[in-house]
Sequence to fold (179 residues):
Amino acid sequence: MPYMSLTSTHRLVWVALMAALISVGGMIFIPIGPVPISLQTMFVALAGLLLGPLHGFLAVALFLGAGVIGLPVFAGGKAGLGVLLGPTGGYLAAFLLTAFIYGLAGGRARKPLWLTVILCLCALLLTYVLGSLRLAFVIDVSVAKALTLGALPFFIGDVFKVSVAISAFRFLQRKRLIP
Fold:
């Protein structure tokens, strides 16, 4: 068995922890239509910010893989490939790319707050665009209608959740507790 440094093991534990937190975020949800309100957005942002682009991506990939194989990790305890192919699948798939972008906003190198905020808002908007495109396709509505259903009602809450993730990240960064 090849030697694995404590740092590598530590990072893998953080990846698994963040995948678990994203899953828990799905259990805390409010069903308001085809797209529920959940805390997954906050934990995807936190995963990217804390772990950086690659490992944030891996945390989301682990979360999605767990859901695809049947573990009830998606919002409301749903599971299976059908969830990714359904109305919310675009948002879930977008989490892979946005975790990478959140990772560019965070990671180990300290960045100015304004740059972190702008990158995080871009990641959030990308989640909305990709998710709404899939939503429009699945429920057969215009993209404008899908944005109205799948982005507009969530914007203020998601900005708040991403702000909490940024605050937690900056606190952990100041205390030098980031993996």
Remarks:
- The helical segments are 6-27, 40-68, 81-85, 89-105, 113-139, 143-150, 155-174.
